Amino acid sequence: MPKNIAIFASGSGSNAENIIRYFAGSAELKFPVILSNKPDAFIHERAKNLNVPSLTFSKQEFEAGDKILEVLKSYDIYAIVLAGFLLKVPVEIIKAYPHRIINIHPALLPKYGGKGMYGERVHKAVKEQGDTESGITIHYVNENYDEGNVIFQALCEVLPTDTCEDIAAKVHALEYEHFPKVIEQIWG
Ligand code: GAR
Predict the structure, then answer these.
(1) For all residues of the chain together, what is the average pLDDT?
(2) Is the pTM of this model over 0.90?
(3) What is the rounded end-to-end Cα distance, in angstroms, of the chain?
């Protein structure tokens, strides 16, 4: 029996697309639905092109949890992947999916984690600190932002001449390479 995985995404959705394409035709893992808190996010365009339903819920609905859990149940969801999802996952959902929710963070946690640290803000902070490396962290999700157990990290070099966009490009490349493989390793 294949395992069904839901993707939660708030933004462009390039990781979501990369994951779905990687597993197209997989007998083990299926990605039957995308959930978002942003009705106008580009993820919905990608979802349309990928033929995957994408549903939008308000912040309040995510925080309440019950409606989300119903949807997850209706798709027989085994696990959840956060791919650029910016809301905190409520305790009800974490309890319903113990060790079955993972997130990707665009830096080397515990550096540059926590509330408000996402996407470009993270790369800006790395640049401002003059760090010589950055990378990605894939971790289990618990009640606190970016504090669950780390599953995987990969590093990239940051040059003094790198712009935030350059850092973002290096980090995205690592995300595209490793995120699907980590999902495959833990649930495939
Ligand atoms: C990714 O770089 C991901 O690591 C980051 O948001 C980006 C989403 O890009 N996530 C966070 O910052 C979570 N704190 P995408 O929508 O193109 O996949």
Answers:
(1) 96
(2) yes
(3) 11
Q: Which residues contact 97 (CB under 8 A, 6 or more apart)?
A: 72, 77, 79, 80
What is the 3 state secondary structure string of 109-144?
CCCCCCCCCCHHHHHHHHHHHCCCEEEEEEEECCCC
Told to judge if 99 belongs to the known catalytic residues of this protein, a careful annotator would answer no
**pLDDT tier for residue 141 given thresholds of 50, 70 and 90:** very high
Pick the catalytic residue from 105, 123, 139, 178: 105
In the sheet with 54-56, reading across from the earlier edge strand, the strands are 54-56, 29-36, 3-8, 77-82, 101-105, 133-140, 150-157
Tokens of 122: 């993270």
Ordered domains of the chain (ranges, CATH): 1-98 (3.40.50.170), 104-179 (3.40.50.170)
Specify the ligand 1 atom closest to the Cα of 9.
Answer: 16
Please report the sign of the dihedral spanned by the C-alpha atoms of residue 46, residue 51, residue 52, residue 57: positive
Residue 118 CA, closest ligand 1 atom number: 12
Is residue 81 within 8 Å of 5, Cβ to Cβ?
yes
Give me the residues paired with residue 5 across strands: 79
User: Cis omega before residue 110 (within 30°)?
Assistant: yes
Q: Is the pLDDT of residue 115 over 90?
A: no
